[in-house]
Amino acid sequence: MPLFCDVALPVPLDQTFTYAVNGVDPVVGARVLVPFSGQALMGVVVRVHDERPAEGFEIKPVQQVLDDVALLPDELMELARWIAGYYVAPLGEVLRGMLPLGAEVRRQFVYRITEVGRKVLYEGAAKGASRRSKLSPEEQNREYAVLNYLEGGEAAKMSALRSATGANKALLEGMVRKRWLLREAVAEERDARRLEKVAILVGHGLEAGEGNRRSFDSATRDEAASGSAQDDTSSLREVGKRLPRLNENQLAVMAELAAVGGRMRVRDLRETLSRVGVPESSLGTLVKRGLVRVEEVAEEFHFGGVGAHGKKHAHEHALNEAQMEALGTIAAAMAQGGFRPHLLYGVTGSGKTAVYFAAMRRALDAGKSALLLVPEIGLTPAMTGQLVAAFGDEVALLHSQLTPDERAEQWHRIRRGEARVVVGTRSAVFAPLKELGLIIVDEEHDGSYKQEETPRYHGRDVAVMRAKLGGAVVVLGSATPSLESWANAEKGRYARVEMRERVADRPLPAVELVDMRNEFRETGQEQIFSRRLIEETEATIARGEQAIILLNRRGYSFVVMCRSCGEKIECENCAISMTYHKPVSGNDAIAQPGQRLECHYCGFRRGVPKKCPKCESEHLYYLGAGSQQGEERLQEIFPHARIGRMDRDTVRGRSDMERLLARLHAGEINLLVGTQMIAKGHDIHGVTLVGVVGADFALGLPDFRAAERVFQLLTQVSGRAGRGELPGRVLVQTYHPDHYAVKFAAAHDYPGFVAKELQYRRWMHYPPYGVLANVVVQSERLEEATGWSAELGRWFERTRLDKVRVLGPAAAPLSRLKRIYRYHFVLKAEKRQALGEALRAMLRFAEARGILRRNLVVDVDAVHLM
């Protein structure tokens, strides 16, 4: 048995930590609890060995081994090391993201008496303490009761101390500050299985399926209480004879259970009975008398899913010629075996999803498993509903809006091999699938695949590497592929598969540009919606069709400014204007607070001031229109329209998206307004008109990807129109009608846009003609952020890194975020190896100069330079 193990811990340090095994037998890939900096942390074993660390290091023992076998197989451990190296991230933080099992470990604090506290207790210094203490005599007595309780040396939880002595948290923390007590963080395993109680009707001929509410009521409620049954039905007469004397409430409980086949969740039964005034005690009485049994069973997982709504599911469609060719290419690659990456370029509405499902079926038939990644949680309900229809119980779901217990449950189902099809967002790329044969990344261009906290991996690129390590086929699908993926296909690294026509030969929607400069000249007013868009929307609704309007800003107005002094009301935590949200009425008012200013970066909220905070002028001006204002204005223009809104304010959870899409599919909503959430993957056949408002503002942002993002957004949202039997139409309001991104999007010309955009990228050595990283120096103290960034800047100048160009330091575009000041560098290089070496050398220098790792953000392949 080895003597030591190296453990990767979820801390911002680029190293692992050695612990003594002391009789336990950890394996690589298993979780352990270990002491670290005064608390117990859960880490992952990455190595076991007999190499004693250098003299002078205290070797602490492993506290507990949580797993008998490796939870992470060799393939995922190798992937974790690759991510740590590629993205210059601590290995422990990478492994934490791979294991969504936090629900299985409960962390809490315990208190232990110190030598100082023991001395206070032994010397009986209560009188002296009372002269100096600001505490009341009662609180002082509680302090000594706590010390007396802990005198034996054992640690105790706060709940135990509160129960035994009446001490509260404030009292205990005060004793910690006086060094009478030591507070320690501990962790322990907990059962994360989701269990629920079920009531079952037993005995007396009332087994599941026998009887219904009417027959039970007629045989019992009128006659069983008197002990005789006069019903003509012999079985019910026998039931009545065997029942003990029951009161009306108990009979109601049994009737309810009989009506649903004799089995019902206790919480549903209680809710039903409470509506008719039946007390819970009636159920307890029936349990005691043996007429009802209560069992704990595994809680059923709700996948959600908005269904097909009268349409065929993706797996039920007969594939056309282009789809069959695409499927044939992918299936042939799976049959040959080994790593084979594909870029599936298909215009919107070309039926890529049907190809995905057919390829997944081929993988399952070959004894393999399949993984489907989608960019947004909002896309999982529709996709999951179709997957369950196609593959049944073999489907598992992974994303961040599941509860911790739900994520652990789904993860273990996958690991046990009970689910061979997984759908989820970027973190699902780590699903512990066995015999992985196919990975599909839908809408691979989407920026949501990039993780915005450490480890800052890109889900698409990790998917490609996982397929490479596991010898699987990977398919990257999009109507607007990222330029990096397109370039890889051009270089022959990816096999490109194209689907250039919509299914059933449906035409791509006609796109019309509305020049908002002319609109202003002709009307003399700045309006949210142009006359042309209002006219087309009115005609669409009158024909009984549906329309979608993209207004890519949340809230009502995104700038509140003083007309007197020009001051903008900014977030007190971030260097960004606060967004004004109006009060809402109706059903949405339940989920949303009233009138407020809100920061969309840190979530800070404040009331709307009546005067300017700077000059006290009452002339506050609200600038810019968000989706909330758009909805209000549309309701005024079209009072008879059934309007819905899709943004982060109305869609807060997975069920919100399901309900909204269900209403849209059912035709309850005929006009939908929202942010870019409406542009992603939704297939609503009744939509014939799409309006685009303000999407081109991003062309003015200081970001080399601005044109690409605008082109992708315009193309994707345009693709929501005309997906049914009727042709679609798109109106794009723009102040930049001559910009190449807008013109190529209007022409549905992706190759033309790529050729133009790649010229600029080549001239400026931006990806895909180079690699880059964004390094952010951050601190809560401005002088630290500026000093460290200046010091790193001088180091970059002295070092003269080979084949790496350094831009900066400069204030980050978002110079303060969540009370943290931010400066940044942009590093550009032709080769990835040179970039990685430069970043690691910089981190070594920073460590030597005392700049902590948590104060440096290293974002390799940054998608946003904010």
Would you tell me the structural class of the helices and strands? alpha/beta
CATH topology of the largest domain: Rossmann fold
CATH class of the largest domain: Alpha Beta
What would you give as the CATH superfamily of the largest domain?
P-loop containing nucleotide triphosphate hydrolases
Quaternary state of this entry equals: single chain
Shape: globular
Please supply descriptive tags for the structure shown above.
GIY-YIG endonuclease; alpha/beta; 7 domains; 866 residues; 28 helices; 6-stranded parallel sheet
Word description of this protein:
The chain is an alpha/beta fold and 866 residues long. The protein folds into 7 domains: 4-101, PriA, 3(prime) DNA-binding domain (GIY-YIG endonuclease, 3-Layer(aba) Sandwich); 108-189, no CATH class; 195-298, no CATH class; 323-504, P-loop containing nucleotide triphosphate hydrolases (Rossmann fold), CATH 3.40.50; 506-554 and 627-769, P-loop containing nucleotide triphosphate hydrolases (Rossmann fold, 3-Layer(aba) Sandwich), CATH 3.40.50; 557-624, no CATH class; 771-860, Ribosomal protein S10 (Alpha-Beta Plaits), CATH 3.30.70.600. It is built from 28 helices and 33 strands. The protein has a 7-stranded parallel sheet, with helices on both faces. A hairpin with a 2-residue loop joins strand 3 and strand 4. Helix 8 crosses helix 9 (234-242) and helix 8 (213-221) packs antiparallel against helix 10. The radius of gyration is 32 Å and the shape is globular.
